[in-house]
Specification:
Helices cover 38% and strands 15% of the residues. It is built from 12 helices and 11 strands. A 6-stranded mixed β-sheet has the order 9-1-10-3-6-11. It has a 5-stranded mixed β-sheet with strand order 5-4-7-2-8, with no helix packed on it. α6 packs across α7 and α9 crosses α12. It starts with a helix and ends in a 27-residue tail after the last helix.
Length: 337
């Protein structure tokens, strides 16, 4: 599994807030829930995203803006609009709640312009995130990012436009998956934008040596890795791998592995209530729970039991959530060099 796939697997639009509204100016929709990630795009027309304590961002047809929570934001017809803001959140997404034309899972072709001219069609999706794995992805994103029209997300918009125009059984499941697809395409475009500064792991994935090493570490995190074993699997010398990995990722391979194992362990500690510390140690590659606890405290600042007591319980596990599995080969304490 590549790094990006691993980080985004906990980001799922599972029954999330999804709205399609056709708006005639003036308007001001204030999104008050502060979701970890909210994606906004317009199929037709224009508008402005006004984030809390950030400069306004114009949003034209088929452009996409992603806002990182917990800050709120407002979608307006123009900066300084005379419209009174309407609070939009989970409860105004359903018919008859909140008095707005914002809906969950279907479109509303309301508005004053009967022929549709002068209107803006907004699509918005909010993503609940799960655990420490997803937080690594959030840490790589700015408060607001935008992607222009004409990229790989355009075909997804065509599917979204078709789906929100009807009200049929199974629609929410289709919209959820289209939202997932839309977010992946949007983030790819943003990470690859000209002149951008993507996180080190994004660029490193494309290196023929380091990319293979990262995929191995993410596919088999509990394997008894050494630098020599990883170098053998990637077809280079130990010294070549060590230097190339540190140069591109910013830290040595086994330091990266330890941090990733502790990220996996943190989610397991929250999600798997019945699992013991020894169970979780084995699941992330440690045969010795004491060695695992020492590594966890060094990386996270708390031992596993303290972390479990103080951590906020995760939301119900979404598709692709972490689970306990016992590896065929377990490393004893720290990865060997």
């Amino acid at each position: 599994m590549d790094v990006f796939s691993d980080l985004i697997r906990g980001v799922r639009a599972h029954g999330s807030l999804f709205g399609s509204s056709t708006l005639s100016p003036p308007w001001a929709l204030r999104f008050v829930d502060g979701a970890p990630l909210t994606l906004c795009t317009v199929l037709t027309g224009t508008g402005w995203i006004v984030p809390e304590s950030r400069p306004p961002e114009p949003l034209r047809a088929r452009e996409t803006v992603v806002v990182r929570g917990p800050a709120t934001f407002t979608f307006v017809d123009e900066v300084g609009t005379r419209a009174e803001p309407i609070a939009c959140g989970e409860h105004c997404a359903a018919p008859g709640q909140g008095g707005t034309r914002h809906r969950r899972g279907w479109s509303d072709h309301g508005g004053d312009a009967a022929d549709g001219r002068g209107t803006t069609t907004l699509i918005v999706g909010a993503y609940p995130l799960r655990g420490e794995i997803s937080r690594h992805l959030l840490d790589a994103l700015p408060a607001v990012l935008r992607v222009d029209a004409g990229g790989t997300a355009d075909p997804v918009l065509d599917h979204l436009a078709a789906e929100v125009s009807v009200d049929v059984p199974g629609q929410q499941a289709v919209l959820d998956r289209l939202l997932d697809w839309m977010l992946v395409c949007t983030l790819r475009e943003w990470f690859d934008r000209p002149g951008g500064e993507p996180p080190a792991w994004w660029a490193a994935q494309r290196d023929p040596v380091v990319g293979d090493a990262l995929r191995l570490l993410h596919t088999e995190p509990a394997a008894p890795w050494t630098v020599a074993a990883l170098a053998e699997r990637t077809g280079v010398s130990r010294s070549t791998l060590a230097k190339r990995f540190a140069d591109l990722v910013g830290e040595p391979p086994l330091t990266y592995l330890t941090r990733w194992r502790m990220t996996l362990a943190a989610d397991l500690l929250i999600e798997q209530d019945a699992a013991t510390v020894a169970d979780i140690a084995r699941a992330v590659g440690y045969s010795d729970p004491f060695g695992f606890s020492a590594a966890f405290k060094r990386v996270r600042g708390l031992n596993p039991s303290e972390f479990r007591r103080t951590a906020t319980p995760a939301s119900p596990a979404a598709e692709g959530s972490a689970s306990i599995s016992t590896p065929r080969n377990s490393a004893a304490a720290e990865p060997r060099r």
